[in-house]
Design brief:
single chain, alpha/beta, Aspartate Aminotransferase, domain 1, Aspartate Aminotransferase, domain 2, 2 domains, 4-stranded antiparallel sheet, 13 helices, binds pyridoxal-5'-phosphate
């Protein structure tokens, strides 16, 4: 995969796109094949007796098959939603509606969570009275701590807080701020059978191989637009037993087997969670994005490339920046393994960090500055916000060089 596959770069000469943690660019192949689908095969799915509807429906289910293959589950365990945020809301609301989660229960979250994995629980906790607790991280003050422990889960804190009242554990597999990959499998193995385990895979599924059976989760959510599909297509993997036992957050067309004026009978399958017309075009875009990933050698190739970039980036940082370490504070683990190519930093002598983003933008480099929808993490770290550069498969060493060139310019000024 090179930049040549992505028309955004030809259309914006000199663009250095380092905001992939927020959303990724789309390959020409995905754009072309989605347009082809819309131009030739599009109609609403479910019970259409004509060929267009059948062709659309076939692709919708082919998309679920591709997703299931990608994360190691069955297509019948895949619910399509609109993004990770919607997926976590759907699950949180369903757990409450089904009385799985009740007044005296505890939901355990990571302090590192994105707001999308905090607010859905907080809003329900206010209404239904359950408690939320947060698992801390291990953070060292040392500037260069190479240990893998830095920014990792504080396991002692986890053991202390995971008591008999905890009914749900919902954590991210990878931080969108520090880039740290967490050992969610270790969490999965520690949980009691009756604890519901949700993993937010928004920053992991696009970057490395994730297998739901290996991480022992009951539920995995992620979002298509961060892995080269279009926006507004999200995925919820839900374990079979919960598909049966949970009630949906909303209902409507497509969710029922029968309705009359006094009663209804919901589907027993994932269909009961997909009320109304789904994002058929988004589902096809996700299918095409996965086909594109396969065509370039699979997710492992993306991981390998990003690892090389991480290596190159860290090398540059330690050779060119070590001496001037006072000028930059980094908010990520220094180990090369166990992380994705996301780098958040602070220039302590610049009060307004948005100014840093603007300086990068002037040089045609797109980074993101702020709280990255992770205010509790920033508060835990004692920071107002950070600047974040996040790389993907189409980024190359020149992009890393450009990043440091701009950083050098800023520190000189
Ligand atoms: C870790 C994490 N979780 C959830 C989300 C929310 O994703 P979406 O906006 O697609 O719902 C993001 C987005 O940045 C994220 O990084």
């Amino acid at each position: 995969m090179t930049k040549k596959d992505f028309p955004i770069f030809a259309n914006n000469p000199g663009l250095v796109f380092l905001d992939n943690g927020a959303s990724t660019q789309k390959p020409q192949m995905v754009i072309d094949e989605v347009s082809e689908f819309v131009a030739h095969d599009y109609a609403n799915i479910h019970r259409g007796m004509y060929s267009l509807s059948e062709r659309s429906e076939e692709l919708y289910y082919k998309s679920k098959e591709a997703v299931a293959g990608f994360i190691g589950c069955k297509p019948s365990e895949i619910i399509y939603t609109y993004n990770s945020t919607y997926g976590i809301n759907l699950i949180a609301q369903s757990l409450v509606k089904s009385k799985f989660l009740k007044k005296w229960d505890v939901v355990l979250l990571g302090i590192r969570e994105h707001h999308s994995n905090i607010l859905p629980w907080q809003i329900l906790a206010q209404e239904y009275g359950f408690t939320i607790k947060f698992i801390d991280l291990m953070v060292s003050d040392e500037w260069l701590v190479t240990s893998d422990e830095n920014y990792d889960i504080n396991w002692k804190d986890f053991e202390k807080k995971y008591d008999k009242n905890v009914k749900v554990v919902a954590v991210s597999q990878t931080s969108n701020v520090t880039g740290k990959i967490y050992d969610v499998q270790k969490i999965g193995k520690k949980l009691r059978e009756e604890t519901f385990f949700l993993v937010d895979g928004s920053q992991s599924v696009p970057n490395f191989a994730v297998n739901v059976a290996q991480i022992w989760c009951d539920c995995l959510v992620f979002t298509g637009h961060k892995m080269m599909a279009y926006t507004w297509i999200g995925v919820v993997y839900l374990k079979k037993e919960y598909i049966k036992s949970l009630s949906p957050m909303i209902a409507g067309g497509g969710t029922v087997e029968d309705v009359d004026t006094t009663s209804y009978r919901l589907h027993g399958s994932v269909d009961k969670f997909e009320a109304g017309t789904p994002n058929i075009i988004g589902a096809v875009s996700l299918l095409k994005a996965i086909e594109y990933i396969t065509s370039i050698g699979g997710i492992q190739k993306i991981r390998e490339h990003e690892q090389q970039l991480v290596h190159y980036f860290m090398n540059k940082l330690s050779t060119e920046w070590r001496v001037t370490s006072k000028k930059i504070e980094i908010v990520w683990p220094m180990s090369v393994e166990g992380r994705i190519a996301v780098f958040s930093f602070v220039l302590p002598w610049v009060k307004n960090f948005n100014m840093i983003g603007e300086k990068f933008a002037e040089a045609n480099v797109c980074i993101r500055c702020g709280g990255h929808c992770a205010y509790p993490l920033h508060k835990f770290l004692g920071r107002e916000g950070t600047c974040r550069a996040s790389f993907y498969r189409y980024n190359d060493k020149n992009d890393v060089d450009k990043f440091f060139e701009v950083l050098n310019e800023i520190t000189k000024s």
